[in-house]
Model the fold of this input.
Amino acid sequence: DEKAKATDFANYFCSYAQLYHQKQMLADHNRMAAYHSAILGNSSVFKDKVVMDVGTGSGILAVWAAQAGARKVYAVEYTDMAKYAKRVMTANGVDNVVTVIQGAVEDIELPMEEDGLDPEGPVDIMISEWMGYFLLRESMMDSVIRARDKFLNKKTGLMFPSHCSMFVAPVRDEDDRKQNNNEYAGAMSDWHDFAETTRNMYGVDMDILEKDFDREQKEYYLLSSRWTELQPEVLLAEPKMIKQFDMATCTLEEARGITAGEPDAVFCFDINGTRNLGPVSAIAGWFTSDFRSRTDEHAAIAPKIENPSFLSTGPEQGYTHWGQQTFYLLSPLPLLKGEITRLEGSIEMTRTKENARLYNCKFKIQNSRRRLGQEDGQVLMKSPVQENVYQIP
Amino acid sequence: DEKAKATDFANYFCSYAQLYHQKQMLADHNRMAAYHSAILGNSSVFKDKVVMDVGTGSGILAVWAAQAGARKVYAVEYTDMAKYAKRVMTANGVDNVVTVIQGAVEDIELPMEEDGLDPEGPVDIMISEWMGYFLLRESMMDSVIRARDKFLNKKTGLMFPSHCSMFVAPVRDEDDRKQNNNEYAGAMSDWHDFAETTRNMYGVDMDILEKDFDREQKEYYLLSSRWTELQPEVLLAEPKMIKQFDMATCTLEEARGITAGEPDAVFCFDINGTRNLGPVSAIAGWFTSDFRSRTDEHAAIAPKIENPSFLSTGPEQGYTHWGQQTFYLLSPLPLLKGEITRLEGSIEMTRTKENARLYNCKFKIQNSRRRLGQEDGQVLMKSPVQENVYQIP
Ligand SMILES: Nc1ncnc2c1ncn2[C@@H]1O[C@H](CSCC[C@H](N)C(=O)O)[C@@H](O)[C@H]1O
Ligand SMILES: Nc1ncnc2c1ncn2[C@@H]1O[C@H](CSCC[C@H](N)C(=O)O)[C@@H](O)[C@H]1O
Done:
């Protein structure tokens, strides 16, 4: 409803109106290089095309599209950043090609007749940098899907990025895991001092709230994922792809998250305790984005991307402003020499009740141990299934 | 309108729904002691009275009112903290006296007939801890005024606190002032690297945005006040009271801020450079709250407060969670031995356009120097009037 939308917009768009925040993204070179080579590396595809940049921010992607030879670029931005983007177009000599439109992409209209656009689908290439933490946070994908369905040419239109995938892997990161646990323990020790003082000095018993405070602090310190910049050597197994989006076809329904029982949303990691230094501290999650040819039913008639580009936000890639979202286990899982430790489970990802741009992740995890060389042999020990719901803050 | 209200409520109430935040207030012993002695130190006044606690949070003030002998206490709280407060009442054996009502105090109704309340003004004593940074931030005073006008007995009703005052004083705090300036300089140096890299690596000229980035960073680092816990020895002159509220009579209009030209909203500090170590780094602002007898036209018939209580959030008082809001000068003002430095000016405080709970403070300041012992004599130097608008973040 209208009220919820007003609240959401006020909260969501606030930080994007700051140059400081836009600059952080512009200084993320893995991000920049992937989009730059996707666009400038495929200028034959952009030549004379109609392009839309969904959420243009400072306007960088729109400038590149113009530099790549687009006939017309519509750069759509909700915040006042649109005013800056306009000046960036002029300063870079592309204001004749790029039209900045301020508004929510869901609400705007294109100058169809004036600009002689194709009523069957005015936009040839839709570029957008919409990805949030662990891909889905911020739920901006919804806006891109809506824009695609309204403006993109259904048969020959291209989405940049074209495909996105989510990954998880077990990692060793005991320092951070322990720090969270210590902070949680410290908060509870504070509570006990506080309750004692409140009783002694002010005659009021607050003990009744201890369990609620405990839950609140657990959620904050232990059941929230953390932004991390993990080094490749902490990876304890091959990452598992848990969800894949074809940006040409994916639906609002798919974009909502990961529902229980999706076939991809499971993992089974066999970790060799002789080759890997443990313990397992956490499951890390991240995403990748591809800029390549269409793979759906219209693949044959849509223009081909001769020079695909790729963006990874995983530990092997070095810094990106997305980092990885790391979900710490409540207790570490040691790895033993001469043994295989298996971590198997599933992930579910749902929007929170309070805020549709935020997510909860439910992990179900079970671990078991076997002798090395007896991979399918006798299980020495199997844990019960542990189920925990984390919020992505 | 309704949309703006929804946005405001979602933002404002979020943190108060956390026990962590309530506990921070409950662990502020200057705050706690002032309210505790105001209520328990005047139990003869509370005996058999009808009390309302506006914004009860965890319920502490309502428990105290019941312990002081109130006949009935209505504890009003918007957030889910109300559910906790209910359990606190039971745990402290006052649930027969205290009724927790969840809702905005502007929207709720009292059970007038059921509880046999006086239709001319059901509430005898209204307690509330509504004060924000530099008193007015959060604008919760509006809610208290509305509750007063709707529920308090006009002639004999008491407000706790009864009077609030705002103060400013010049202070020495060069470490923090310099740090802000250094961070600002660092941000601008970063920008130059960034603009250069963006041009060289990605072929886009962002120079056109430098001035806007500069303004944004200046506002953030230099033209925002800071929370500080100042030591008494950094005070360079007697604090000046710039605004006073009689809680029994003050209006929504007064609560909006400090308008240009209010007679109290001026200051003139003469700082003796022989007795004080400079420089002047900032103007600090804070407030005090009194719990004393009414002083308005109904003073004679309202119950007297025999044991007044007092809360100060100034530097002489030690820690409070409010601290002081410190407004740093853009350049320091040295104090010279054998001279008097005069700092005179005025303050204006207005709500921001974007968010009525946030404030901008405009300071107009002029300084001048004279020989010590020639206080009214020849002025050696007089600066132009400097005008700066700070936001209270
Ligand atoms: N529904 C919507 N309509 C218009 N703009 C939106 C939007 N949702 C998000 N945005 C904008 O999308 C931008 C995403 S950040 C990416 C900015 C820029 N394209 C760059 O790559 O540097 C933000 O500036 C945000 O304000
Ligand atoms: N208009 C309104 N109606 C009801 N509650 C309000 C309100 N405005 C603010 N509040 C509540 O007022 C409280 C202020 S903080 C003070 C809490 C408590 N009285 C104590 O002294 O510890 C918050 O819990 C906030 O949620």
